[in-house]
Amino acid sequence: MDVLQINPQNVFDTELYERVLDPKECQKQLSYLSNSSLVLQFLDASAKIPSGLLSLNLADYGDYYECLAIDHSVHDMHIQGKFCVINIPFTQKSSKLNMYWKSQMPKFTTNDILDLLPEQLVIYFRSLFQNVENSPVVKDIAEDISRIYTSFSIYTNTRRLVNFQTHKYALECVDGIRTLSMLWVLCGHTYIFTFMSPPHNMSYVIQWTSYFTSTWISACPIVVDTFFALSGILCIYVIPDNITTKQFVKFIPVFYLYRILRMLPLLATIVLFQSSIMIWISDGPDWDKMAMATEFCRQRWWTTLLHIQNYYRPLALCVFQSWYIAVDTQLYLLSPFIIVFLLGSSLVAWITLTTVGYCESFANFFQDFYLNTATRASPFVMGILFGYVLKQRRGKRIEIPMVSKYAIALWITAFASMAYCVFAIYETVQIPYEFSWFDAILNSVMRGLWGTSICWMVLACVHGYGGPINWFLSLPLWKLPARLSYAVYLSHLQILQIMKSSTVKLQYFTELEMVYEIAVRLRPEKKPQDSAAKDEDFSSEDKSR
Length: 545
Known about the structure:
Strand order of the largest sheet: 1-2
Structural class: mainly alpha
Number of domains: 2
Helix content: 55-70%
Strand content: under 5%
Distance between the termini: 31 Å
């Protein structure tokens, strides 16, 4: 089904509308209202020409609940209020093609995929678990197949969630990096959804986005590359030291299965929630946005669960933020092609990492970069490179000659690179926007720079060159939010969507109001998803969301 064919009205009971609407009765009631004071209630609840037109306030919702509260029985008529929205575009020749792009991916249906799965899956997993039972590799990693079943235990997961004991080789600083990055994501999405409402003072919002003080929000998308870098590090770091290349090749099916069992249950729950009961939670003048999101999930749920939604009709994403999980999963599935070379000789490992890093950077310059897996791979590849170093030196300190000189210089370089990635965005958001070579170069190098800087922070902190930075990032207070970060990432956008889609009055945008709103949403009682998060061994490092 094409994006243009998705109709948000499908999620509503349109048959009910047809049953209750009677043209003759409607005409009768309109005739009555034309000579009745009751019409004042309709006029009072209806939208008017809004104030602030010069500030681009082009919307007025009227009084949503006052309209729905109108309920009168007069003579033989039952008169009730019904809210509807009318959009009058300034450009009368607008086209849907200006709003959506048609994807050029090959078309195939859900049945085409499902018909191929059951029999082959049964055969595959039957042989897989027979090999798992006697595999020494799996015994080293998973200890026992029963851990797969205990991963669904509420009791076991609750114990792991609140157990702050650290693993001997845990990357403690990763908890702080992951938590702070997730807080940045929450702030950025809160701002973005406020702009989509729309705000009363849209002209100020447009100006605000070009201010230097708003750069921290404009640069928010770069934080996603933090998670790609951490994912690359942990992808190889969690592999035990005694595994050979041959053993790892046999272990690859379990390597994939571990990922599916760890990520899929919560993702599937959010998809089910979005495509079913979420549409019933609230209501409002803007609730058609929720209807659109629900219809996307009802039509494209399978692309999300198969992690292909960033390529197949990417403008109709089910659970919008899951594009990141799709890209991360695709990189994870490709990572064994690199890891198999890293478990052999050091010479082969470094030649492989150097080659992969060069080819990826070349592709990153010439292709679209936001939803494309290839152009998102640079921080992931850098993560694998640093993860390899961390794995090789696990339990052994990396000695850097003349620490006071080189370590400090590397820290300065890392912070300068991160500052460049953030503040250089300021030049690309000026109004009016004009494409420049600076923009192209920034897009081609910023993700690699950011990922490398994050990887250096982890390496330096683990091997004693972090100082107060390592102390701060390794504080125990980061452990719980770090373990909940995946659940928070998958659910926070849906909570924002509910709140913003059910608004009945336009919000006046100010930074103070936004800070207050973010603080309210970060309160512990505002996070019902806490109980859904799960923990694993290597808990402080094996969830990089």
